[in-house]
Write a structure and sequence with these properties.
The chain folds into three domains: 7-278, ABC transporter involved in vitamin B12 uptake, BtuC (Orthogonal Bundle); 285-364, Arc Repressor Mutant, subunit A; 368-443, no CATH class. It contains 19 helices and three strands. The protein has helices spanning 7-32, 36-60, 67-91, 96-119, 131-134, 142-161, 163-171, 173-178, 183-200, 210-222, 228-252, 258-276, 282-315, 335-347, 366-389, 397-404, 410-424, 426-436, 438-443, and strands at residues 322-323, 351-356, 359-364. Helices cover 73% and strands 3% of the residues. The radius of gyration is 32 Å and the shape is elongated. Helix 1 (7-32) runs parallel beside helix 6 (142-161) and helix 10 (210-222) runs parallel beside helix 12. The longest helix is centred in the C-terminal third of the chain and has 34 residues, at 282-315. The chain is mainly α.
Length: 444
């Protein structure tokens, strides 16, 4: 596409791609700093600056439609809007979200009024200013595209160089201030980059949609990782692809508003990430929750079978098979759910299944007995720990242990044993372990 479209179109595509990358990168820090809505206030506050810059250029006789003049006016107006938000939130009882809503509404309304006044001047230059609201990539000149490319590249470079400082302020501002870092300067630099990306993106994406380019790519990247070093480049890639495909659509189909296409492409990435991301996506979360429910049901089944067989083992007799109808925790289950659990545990090698008198009877295998003994041991250790250290009623100890026992790792079990041995003595712990089942002596 770049080789066939001509130099000017190629520059526009490259410029918007770099704009998307820059918006994704610096938008990640704005998202982590919880300043995403501030970008919205900044974008809407830029509109009256555009109108005032146009009027100033017309009054001075230099013409009001110079991009550098319009962007300078938008920058000043945007900064004034952000400072107004900060002043309202600090000097009054209004919270920041309320201040943002008030400022962006008032500034945007003032900008619309100024644009209406400009349209009535009849200077011949006022045409096309409304495109800053929705964006129009096709109207960019080669110089505009180069300006966007340079500013976006500078934003990316500064964000990469200052990544350590930005991460520190985003995650622990108080620690950064206590250790002597210039938190205010770092925060100001971060917002300056957000301002730069917002201003240079006005012509490509528009005032109404530039905030989406700053928020959606980082939000999509957040589904895939918990690490900033991965989230930042991933958000840049998503933003860059969004800018590229939006610009290509604008070049191939001039009637389509490019800002909307860019946002729609970014939204598609967000939707896909929200659904299929392994750790935080809907499918991944549902799979994790389902697996946890299966594990809990499996643990309860094995523990119930073990506890019912325990009296027979203490007497040296073979415990009889247990009907699944006699297991309390499965009485409210549907028959199909019971069968699925039974066959799952049979597939895992925990139980043997036999049908007697029209009923399913189950018994633990040797492998299941060994696994169940660990579960019972962990459950009773946690019960003892709660009864010893926590202020929990004895009638609630079993319930509390049921909530926690499925998440106990070997390291936590070792700490429990160490704590109980230190409190009650190693001899007590050894007697406690032996009282559970002879197999526990081999396990422990």
């Amino acid at each position: 596409m770049l080789l066939q479209a001509g130099l000017n179109t190629a520059l526009v595509i490259v410029g918007t791609t770099f704009l998307g990358i820059a918006a994704g990168v610096i938008g990640t820090f704005a998202l982590l700093r919880k300043r995403s809505l501030m970008a919205d206030a900044l974008a809407h506050s830029a509109l009256p600056g555009l109108g005032l810059a146009f009027l100033l250029g017309t009054a001075l006789g230099i013409g009001g439609k110079h991009l550098w003049l319009l962007l300078a006016g938008a920058t000043i107006s945007g900064v004034v809007g952000v400072c107004t938000v900060q002043a309202i939130s600090r000097l009054s009882r209004l919270k920041e979200d309320c201040a943002i809503g008030a400022v962006l509404s008032v500034f945007f309304g003032a900008g619309v009024v100024l644009l209406s006044i400009i349209q009535s001047l009849g200077t011949g230059e006022e045409g096309g200013l409304h495109h800053f609201i929705y964006g129009q990539t096709a109207a960019m000149t080669r110089g505009d595209a180069l300006t966007m490319l340079v500013c976006a590249a500078a934003t990316i470079a500064v964000s990469i160089l200052a990544m350590k400082e930005f991460r520190l302020v985003c995650f622990d501002r108080d620690f950064a201030a206590a250790t002597g870092w210039p938190v205010s300067s770092i925060d100001l630099g971060m917002m300056a980059l957000v301002t730069l990306v917002t201003v240079i993106g006005l012509q490509a994406v528009g005032i109404l949609l530039i905030v989406a380019l700053l928020v959606i790519p980082p939000a999509a990247a957040r589904f895939w990782t918990n690490r900033t070093t991965i989230m930042v480049p991933l958000a840049g890639v998503i933003g860059g692809l969004s800018g590229y495909f939006g610009s290509v659509a604008s070049a191939l189909l001039p009637g389509i508003p490019v800002g909307s296409v860019i946002v729609l492409v970014a939204s598609s990435f967000f939707l896909v990430s929200m659904i299929i991301a392994p750790a935080r996506g809907l499918l991944g979360t549902a799979t994790t929750q389902l697996w946890m429910r299966v594990r809990i049901a499996e643990d309860h089944l094995l523990r119930s079978l073990y506890e019912q067989a325990e009296p027979f083992s203490d007497k040296g007799t073979v415990p009889p098979p247990v009907s699944i109808d006699n297991l309390t925790f499965t009485k409210q289950w549907h028959n199909s759910t019971r069968l699925l659990l039974l066959y799952w545990c049979h597939y895992r090698g925990w139980i043997d299944i036999a049908k007697k008198s029209g009923k399913f009877c189950i018994e633990l295998t040797s492998r299941g007995t060994e696994h169940a003994s660990r579960l019972v041991r962990n459950h009773r250790l946690w019960e003892e720990y709660i009864a010893t250290y926590a202020d929990v009623s004895l009638s609630h100890v079993d319930y509390s242990a049921d909530l926690v026992e499925h998440s106990l790792s070997p390291a936590i079990i070792a700490l429990l044993e160490e704590s109980l041995a230190a409190r009650k003595g190693p001899e007590w712990l050894l007697r406690k372990q032996r009282s559970l089942h002879p197999i526990l002596e081999e396990l422990g």
